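Worked problem 6 (solution included).
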Amino acid sequence: MNTFTPSSTNPVTMPPLDLAVALYDHYESIDEVKHYYGLLAIYALARAAELIHDNTALLNRCRNILKRFPLEIKHPNYNFINYRIGGIPRAYMLYRGHMTDEATRIYVHEYAEQLMHSPRSDSGVVLNMRRQNEIARQMVWIDVAMPVTPFLLFAGLTFGQPDWIDEAARQTFLHYDELLNPDNGLLHQCKNFTVPGAVTDDHWGRGNGWGLIALTELVQYLPADSPHRRQAEQYFVDHTRALLPHQSPRGLWRQEIPLPTAWEESSGTGLILYGYGVGLRLGLLPADQFRPAFDRGIAGLRQHAIKADGSIELSCPGCRCPGEGERRGTVAAYVEDKQPYRDEPHGAAPLILALTEEARLNQSTNA
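Solution. The predicted structure is:
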């Protein structure tokens, strides 16, 4: 298995919001931003724009990016229908009042309704729209919490639809209940992909990040009197605490989180740090324990995962129950069969999200 030795590279010292935009610029320069990880990058860019004092130009840029969906995009084969209209960032921009055009309102409402009526597994989780045969109907994977929960949450808040908000929370809780390892508080990625009723052996870094970002949006945006708030906060605190002991000496979390010989992975680290930043701002996480971990993580990303030209390192390639035969879903398959490379596209959004929380925490500290 691979281990990484400390890098001699100097850390990137650019201010966090400038660096966040630079990461997006670089990503956009090498690929069309449209896949689910691209939509999350647009969402992260919108969050960065809100923190910039003179943000009109950047918010306009976000609007123009999203107005290309769905008619000006050559769409790939999506797993979830809401990707077609810009997914999470389209719903967020509408919720925040940054996109109030009638087309956006129609699109978000229509696709939230479609998502509410999409097929479910026997346990109630939303199904991948391309995998609805009898075997696939029982497949559960934590990645699904990311596209479903925030989209329904923002749409429900915008249109005053409590059933959409209820379903947003329900989908995340269902995934945690199916995939949580009670022995260590970490998530497995998949269930029913290998043997019926079995979870994969992993505690994959980005998979834990996918679950945590869904909880992070719930604790940020659920109304104070929501019947789901107490459960969302408890799940969030429990998961963030379970992750804390596994931060590496360089400040990152690993591809297989509890395995000290696994390689350090940046996209999962970025998502975890985003959750930590939000938890610190909301007072859900004690600063004496979590602020040092957050600061070490940001420093680690700046030194080992982010380059001065906006390129990124150490992000895991697309990964869903890797391996073949008896190897499928094993820790070895997650660690050995998946290797990072420069500018792996899943990594941009998590790093931008982490940087937006660096900026927010810096602003609150300096206020």
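Discussion: Residues 16-359 form a domain with the Glycosyltransferase fold (CATH 1.50.10.10).
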